[in-house]
Write a structure and sequence with these properties.
Layout: H1 8-17, H2 22-43, H3 51-60, H4 70-80, H5 84-92, H6 107-115, E1 118-119, E2 122-123, H7 126-137, H8 141-165, H9 169-174
Antiparallel strand pairs: 1-2
């Protein structure tokens, strides 16, 4: 069953309707651009990602970022707007774990990977982004350990993706 995903214009209207701050909208756009580039590069190597889903979920993933538990609020809003696949990605994006095995990749992985490489609206790479998240979380060792575990899995996945597409993600994203 094919789902209709909101196009960029509709996503921008939803962000506006939710009163998402401009700096968060810029972040969502940058994450989307990175996620779509990665997904498209993998599609060229035989993968079959739903690029419109990656685009819409990326644009909307932080629609409610200024709220506590923004992934829940944002997912609820997007679901009520009729976009269940996007809402599922939004709900899981903060705590998503992905396999380092590229064969197991899905659209949510593209959005989450894009989010792990972008700080505000700039590509900064995995380490800078994860260090920022750790600093923002404060001194909680459990959170730091959790983030560092995600970092290492992400690093393996990034290496595997780069081997498949034949270019670094930094080159792919910054060269666009």
């Amino acid at each position: 069953m094919d789902c209709k995903h909101p196009d960029r214009e509709e996503c921008m209207k939803m962000l506006e309707e939710y009163n998402t701050p401009d700096h968060v909208v810029r972040h969502c756009i940058a994450v989307t651009e990175a996620a779509v580039l990665i997904g498209s590069a993998l599609n060229e190597k035989g993968f079959n990602f739903d690029i419109p889903l990656i685009r819409s979920a990326g644009l909307l993933h932080d629609i409610a970022r200024v709220e506590k538990m923004h992934w829940e609020s944002g997912a609820d809003f997007v679901c009520k707007s009729g976009y269940l696949p996007e809402s599922k990605i939004i709900r899981r994006h903060m705590n998503h774990s992905f396999s380092p095995d590229p064969a197991e990749l899905r659209e949510i992985d593209m959005v989450c990977l894009g989010d792990r490489l972008i700080l505000e609206d700039k590509y900064v790479g995995l380490d800078v982004r994860m260090d920022y998240v750790i600093k923002k979380a404060g001194g909680d060792k459990r959170i730091r350990d959790f983030i560092n575990e995600k970092r290492e899995i992400s690093r393996i996945l990034i290496n595997n993706i780069e081997n498949i597409i034949g270019v670094s993600l930094e080159e792919l994203i910054n060269g666009a």
